[in-house]
Amino acid sequence: MLFFCAVGMTMIIYSPFVLSNALIGLLSLALFDIQLYPFRISFHPRLRENWRGFWKTAVFWVPSLLFFIVLIGCLYSTDFDYGWERIRLKVPFLVLPFAFYSLPRLRQRSYYGLFYFLVVVLFLTNIGIGINYLLHFEEINEGLQLGRSIPTPRNHIRYSLLLCIGVLAGFILFYQRFHIRHKWESWLILGLTMFNFIFIHILSVRSGLMVLYCSMILGVIALVLIQKKYGLAIGATALIMLLPTLAYHTVPSFKTKLSYANWELHEYRAGRIVTGSDQGRIQSYQVGWEVFSTNPLLGVGAGDLKQAVHDRYDSMFPGQTKKLMPHNQFLSVAAGSGLLGLLIFLIAIFYPFLRHQHFRDPFFFVFFFTFLLSFVVENTIENSIGIGFYCLFLGISLSYLTRLSEVK
Prior knowledge:
With about 400 residues, this protein is mainly alpha-helical. It has helices at about 1-15, 15-30, 45-55, 60, 65-75, 80-90, 90-100, 110-135, 135-145, 155-175, 185-205, 205-225, 230-250, 250-270, 275-295, 305-315, 330-355, 360-375, 385-405, and strands at about 30-35, 40-45. The protein is about 75% helix and about 0% strand.
């Protein structure tokens, strides 16, 4: 189980295909009893019992509502091909919570160890990205001035979100003085995390930075409300206010990306069209809202959402070839499934976080708010890697936290 979780964490960065295979591996462990010597494979002896228990354990099955929202929305859609594609894409929301329910619960050492592993993987990946940046320094910097990003493996936005989780998790591990064998490992974790923290500013992906700083602010609030550590909260607040200014004056890529964003916003306000990410995002919000307004209760149907968005682009922005789906997860759900679907979506997202006060676990807190904040600027779980990313971390967290609840 730990092997597949570790592979899945790594392949969020490098390969959606291998990530899918890692998740299939987790499901296979839940479905089958595999013996190597002599080789024998059969259905898991507790499969039926686990299936019944899964539907009796709300914290695991409630996230499956994210699958059923799309399934029901496709019933009143006319584009069956796109609808089927959406249903197939959302299947992990049904099968992976069941897999993590069926597998042995993670203990604290394994749970923390997976985040330790993530910090190391991100550090090594950042070394590779940094070397490539230095080798193509002028070329990449010219691209930054045109609104492009520093090359990363696969998707730079998904990578920045994972890096955000890794940075915050690293600070938590150091705060907890976690180590596997030697006490000095906690200082190693701090060193790797500080490097990752600096590097996320070098990458300067605005979605990741926004989520990072908002999550840190929420962490400060948690220090005050939950742990009553006022002195630490004051010091952290001062640091959070200072760091962006320091980065602006010391990290060229950070300054370039912010300057480009300000220029693009100025052009948009002046009515001039620029093929940049921010203008495209704002247009997608406008289009998504118009689609939602046509049927606010039930939406246009998950299967018909793509065509409805394209039709609205043709009427609102004639001649525009780049047509984006709404870059807001809440708006995407509302446009496709209406207010009713959005309500079910919010229940599916928030219930595992609030159940048994799971929000008190710092790692789950970081994971949850990273995704929640990303939902504001991205339709994060509308592609396979985003869904795999979400389901993997949700399953890991619930596996550990439900063990604590069962022990109590």
